[in-house]
Amino acid sequence: MTGNKTVDKHTNSAQERSTSPQQFQHEATAAAALTHEHPSGVCEILLNRPKKLNAFNTEMCEIMIEKLLAWEKLESSKVIFVKGNGNKAFRAGGDIKALLDLEEAGRHHEAAHIFYRHCQLQHLIGSLKKPYIALMGGITMGAAVRLAMNAPFRIATENSVYSMPENIIGHFNDATQRLQGPDIFYSGIATHYVPAKRINALEATLDDLAVQKENTLDKDDINAVIEKFSAEDIDKEEKAPAFSLGGGIYEAVNRYVTRTKPKWHPPTLEQVDASEMKRKYFDAPIDTPLVPLIDQGGTYMEYLHTRFMLPKCSEILHVANTFGGDRERTVKHLIDKYTGKHGVKAKVDSLF
Questions:
Q1: Based on the domain organization, do 118 and 220 belong to the same domain?
Q2: Is the pTM of this model over 0.70?
Q3: How far is CA 227 from the centre of its chain?
């Protein structure tokens, strides 16, 4: 204790080791994304448009593609850490104005190419063999989610705000509800929940781990480091933040989705015009197939990093049913399976 303030054991001199924007190595600190390669092998990307809440643009996309491809091949790179400049946002979507300007000028192919490169970047992030960590600090909305969701490690803080607002403008059929930090974690969008005041110390510990290792960091070792700094209070009943989809809400939604008889049009699959369906929903306006920047094989039918996340609601309910609704046995089973992960107990409790 110092005076009346509690000293967090995770926030010490490590705060002084956080990389400032001036330390990043890209050719100009005004660049949309700055990069820094630490001697330890930790490679950082700083999304650098704080006045626009780090909104994604073409320059940012191209810098990220260039550096991720280089680091994937570089033997000395051991882990990649991506975060936003400033306290307000990781990234607040894409730069819509740039797209509108191209469309209004009739430059449709250039606008389509922006989406093409964005899709290539998303596939690249999901295909990297080098571990990739996304710090979803502050606003993480729309196109910002693309830089995080394919990553094995996605860290939310109490300041994180997640949403996919595209549905409002008819662009993408997804949830528009805003989720705050704990819900982002409980729902599986984030793999970890770390208090913002511990992030600098977490980065410093990752740097120390990289110094000790000669090669690419093992994902389980990275997970152990992040867990060390995760909010342990989340599993204490008196301090655990509520899960907005917990209690009877999840089951009620699930019952509605599974028991409500849909009204299909046309009413049978035999009446569906496959060629019209393809034309309307799948044919691109330009005939340019997406070419991956790297191809590591695999079908992407299953997410490979579920062990770093909290168990799904469906898994919790399945285990609970197996144990006859016994909460303590359910908690113990899942804590053992997820190797003591912070948040497992809180999520299980929220569903009972």
A1: yes
A2: yes
A3: 16
